[in-house]
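Lab channel / #folding
Pinned by the channel admin:
"Please post every new chain as: sequence first, then the structure tokens as a reply. Keep commentary short and put observations after the output so the thread stays searchable."

First post following the new format, from NK:
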Amino acid sequence: MTTHAVVMLRVTNPDSLAQYRKKATDALARHGGEVVQASPDLTVLEGAPVMPDALAIVRFPDRAAAEAWIADPDLQPIHDLRRGAGASDILLL
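Reply from TO:
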């Protein structure tokens, strides 16, 4: 069953994020993932959430693929670029 991940970023190091973006598409594709939508332009419709600087919706073929992507030891240097860009929260739906 298709699984989506919500990736919320609070950026403190834009250079690290730029490096991550160059490698993220291939890293996701390795586990069947793809970015559905990503944007720094967010609008609150209701409530008062802590707003990230950017948000992405990522689709994976299933939950196991998403978990394999985050745990893949070969991708850790790429995940480290994202983590080095600031705070990141990733939630599976």
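NK: The chain has one domain: 3-43+51-92.
TO: also worth noting, The mean pLDDT is 97.
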